[in-house]
Design brief:
Elements: H1 15-20, E1 25-27, H2 31-40, E2 44-46, H3 55-64, E3 68-70, H4 73-78, H5 82-90, H6 101-113, H7 123-133, H8 135-141, H9 166-170, E4 198-203, H10 207-210, H11 212-222, H12 231-234, H13 240-247, E5 256-268, E6 278-295, H14 304-312, E7 321-326, E8 337-341, E9 346-347, E10 350-351, H15 354-361, H16 371-383, E11 391-398, H17 408-423, H18 430-445, H19 452-459, E12 464-469, E13 474-475, E14 479-480, E15 485-491, H20 501-527, H21 552-559, E16 566-568, H22 569-576, E17 591-593, H23 595-615, H24 621-641, H25 646-660, E18 669-674, E19 682-688, H26 691-708, E20 714-715, H27 722-725, E21 727-732
Parallel strand pairs: 1-2, 2-3, 7-11
Antiparallel strand pairs: 4-21, 5-6, 5-21, 6-11, 6-12, 7-8, 9-10, 12-13, 12-14, 15-19, 15-20, 16-17, 18-19
């Protein structure tokens, strides 16, 4: 039976007529639903769909014509609909375009059938076709910035892009009302037209002079109440949902903590970190900023759907709420906002368990990103036995692009953890900071990362490579990048994910190999025991604590033949019971590669150590060539593990060809390798400092774009890590 006021239309009801007679509709985005909503100018209240690649394109079309309101899945299932319905009734859909799409398609089909349509697709048109399926990727692929401060396009459209609809490249109108504040609980002072200023109360005041991007972030904070004041805000106007949410996020009369953490370029070491290898990492110029404010519950600026949820639950007063806004989330098909009543994350003021927290963030895929931030809150509260009675408001703005293999996740974790430590007045040493972030990513996000990324983001120094032996975090003196050497990153456009299947299976294979080697070592120790000594039970876990501690020569002479090339999960578990890795689990039905993933960190550790020594050597052409050879060896080893990709392989090959065309020594490009977790992402390029290298690098980027239709992002330059920045506590004057 249906609840009151619910009606079932007759089976033969004509759906377009039904929708035309409606004030609003609620459902999921699809081609038919979108078409009917636009044709009849009926607002659609939608819930995001998992794994529906067409959704970003259709969602942006609806938003452009002010024809949609987004509802969280949690509110949908709980019946907390009222605030969304009221919002839908207030918006004014504005679609006045032709309605003859069917005729257009029919004409094209007729032309094809009659042989009149013989046009050959260019690479750009192939990309446009793909944009229908992966709509949000097109804008990033072409590096099209929506608008400049005067409202014009930041990058002139190329002729090959002329068929892209204007509404797609120009973004959304500012009138979108996807998220509103509840006036009954809004206490934020309004200062329309007034420039906001901040007093720096505590923290690293000098950092504001040293970090230009932080100054820009503060300008963004100051301009949230006046979109017309800041060009940086205007860069975000294509995602007005996030701007609307962040404008009412903070109480400007209260203290606000700001923290910063950079991404990193994996020069050498990569996935061998979890096997105890040495690594060399360069902190990038691109960084993530997090602003965090502790707010007494009665003073929170609650969004309307939160107040509606509280009313539905019969909650009296204003319970503390965690609210997070992530700028530019739409570019990565993420919901830009996350909110949760803190009683869902806390029990009597204390953090819930890690498995319980993980379940909270897995409920809705489009908002799972919040686990990287709120997971850090859960971890620091758990490990330090902290309580929290106030609400928290958090704004995240990151210049570290996601899915490029440059540790965007580590940057947001480290910045968030630094902000939370300041909120709770806790001093974290660098190693502890990184390990807490790793715990959040392993146990709450569910990604089996090592410690390398977080350490690089925390302790990296500008112009230097962080040197560390990952056992678990034995930090060495940073290695100065010689003045004649440059490291660049080139993004392949293929999305990388540490949580991806390939990375996880390679890690499982490496730990399987370690467990097998430990068993063999234990048996050998027993065989070589002095016959006069009493026998004793040996624990295999005391042998081979890290694969990287095995010398390559010993591996080849004593170990390689004892390792299976592949093993089925169930067979391994029956013989060894566990592989000893807390961050991954073994699928009994899956077949894992063992020998190659085990070999990689053993040889990679040796390559990294040689690489570091060569960096300290006198400058020479031989030095550059030997460094390059080590990078090529690392790249080949990644591919043998199954962690390569067509895009990264092509970039490496283009760099190799460029190095062969050099006019002379001590100039140009020398080598490249895949980085981080592999399977896409970014390649690291070794180059000689100078104009010739910059020209050669640009030629590689141009050729890659010509072949693939994708314009790579180039990473150049470095910056100090989070520990050098510290944090600043600011308050509006």
């Amino acid at each position: 039976s249906l609840p009151p006021s619910f009606l079932v239309p007759p089976a033969d009801e004509y759906i377009p007529d039904l929708l035309n007679a409606s004030d609003a509709m609620l459902g999921k985005i699809g081609y038919g639903t979108t078409s009917e909503a636009l044709a009849h100018n009926v607002p659609l209240i939608f819930i995001r769909r998992d794994y529906f690649n067409e959704e970003p394109f259709l969602r942006k079309l609806l938003q452009h014509h002010s024809c949609s309101v987004e509802m969280s899945r949690r509110d949908f299932h709980s019946g907390n609909w009222s605030s969304y319905l009221l919002r839908a009734l207030r918006i004014k859909p504005q679609y006045h375009e032709p309605l003859n799409g069917g005729e257009v398609v029919a004409d094209i089909l007729c032309s094809v059938a009659e042989g009149k349509y013989t046009h050959k697709e260019s690479n750009s048109e192939i990309r446009l076709r793909d944009a229908i399926v992966f709509g949000y990727q097109l804008q990033r692929a072409r590096n099209i910035h929506p608008t400049e401060s005067d409202g014009s396009l930041a990058v002139p459209l190329q002729p090959t892009l002329s068929r892209i609809p204007d509404w797609y490249t120009k973004g959304l109108p500012l009138a979108l009302e996807d998220l509103e504040l509840d006036p009954s609980v809004t206490n934020s002072p309004k200062t329309a037209g007034a420039a906001l200023e901040f007093d720096v109360l505590r923290g690293n005041k000098a950092a504001l002079r040293s970090f230009r991007d932080t100054t820009q972030f503060l300008e963004l904070l100051q301009s949230l109440d006046d979109l017309g004041k800041s060009p940086r805000v205007l860069e975000h106007t294509s995602s007005s949902h996030d701007i609307r949410a962040s404008r009412g996020l903070f109480q400007w009369g209260l203290e606000l903590v700001v923290a910063r953490a950079p991404g990193r370029l994996d020069v050498m070491g990569g996935i061998a970190d979890y096997s105890g290898s040495a690594v060399l990492q360069m902190p990038l110029r691109e960084a993530c900023h997090v602003a965090c404010q502790r707010q007494p519950a009665p003073q929170q600026n609650l969004w309307k759907h939160i107040s509606s949820r509280h009313m539905a639950r019969g909650i009296v007063g204003s319970p503390p709420v965690l609210r997070i806004v992530s700028l530019d989330a739409d570019e990565n098909n993420r919901s830009p906002t996350f909110d949760v009543d803190l009683d869902e994350l806390l029990d009597n003021g204390k953090a819930i368990s890690y498995p319980a927290a993980r379940q909270v963030f897995e409920k809705e895929s489009s908002k799972r990103w919040a686990a990287y931030i709120a997971g850090c809150l859960i971890v620091i509260m758990t490990e330090y036995d902290l309580t929290l009675k106030d609400g928290l408001a958090i704004l995240v703005s990151s210049d570290v692009p996601e899915g490029k293999g440059v540790s965007s996740s580590a940057a947001v974790e480290v910045a968030s953890m630094c902000a939370f430590a300041a909120i709770f007045d806790i001093k974290l040493d660098p190693k502890e900071l990184a390990m807490l972030c790793q715990k959040a990513e392993n146990l709450i996000v569910g990604a089996p990362c090592g410690l390398m990324d977080q350490m690089a983001s925390a302790i990296g120094e500008k112009g230097k490579l962080m040197s560390m032996t990952c056992q678990p975090a034995d930090v060495k003196p940073n290695v100065i990048i010689p003045p004649h050497i440059r490291f660049y990153g080139i993004d392949s456009g293929i999305r990388h994910s540490v949580g991806g299947t390939d990375y996880g299976s390679v890690r499982v294979g490496a730990f399987m190999g370690r467990r097998i080697i430990a068993q063999v070592s234990a048996k050998n120790a027993e065989r070589n025991r002095d016959p006069m000594s009493p026998p004793k039970r040996l624990d295999p876990n005391q042998f081979e604590d890290y694969l990287a501690n095995i010398n390559p020569s010993r591996y080849e002479a004593e170990i390689a033949d004892s390792l299976p090339a592949h093993v089925v999960g169930s067979v391994f578990l029956s013989q060894y019971s566990t592989h000893g890795d807390h961050a991954t689990s073994i699928d009994p039905q899956r077949t894992y590669s063992v020998r190659v993933p085990t070999k990689h960190p053993i040889f990679e550790n040796n390559r990294v150590k040689c690489f570091e020594q060569l960096l300290r050597a006198p400058a020479s052409e031989d030095q550059m060539k030997m460094l390059g050879e080590l990078m090529y060896q690392s790249h080949v080893s990644y591919s043998m593990c199954g962690l390569g990709s067509d895009g990264t392989d092509r970039l490496v090959e283009l760099v190799r060809r460029a190095s062969q065309k050099k006019k002379g020594p001590n100039e140009g490009l020398y080598a490249a390798k895949i980085t981080g977790g592999g399977s896409g992402g970014t390649v690291c390029v070794l180059a000689h400092a100078g104009a010739e290298s910059e020209v050669a690098l640009r030629d590689v980027v141009d050729q890659y774009e010509d072949e693939t239709g994708y314009r790579p992002i180039v990473f150049e330059g470095s910056s100090h890590g989070a520990c050098s920045f510290g944090h600043v506590v600011i308050k509006r004057k």
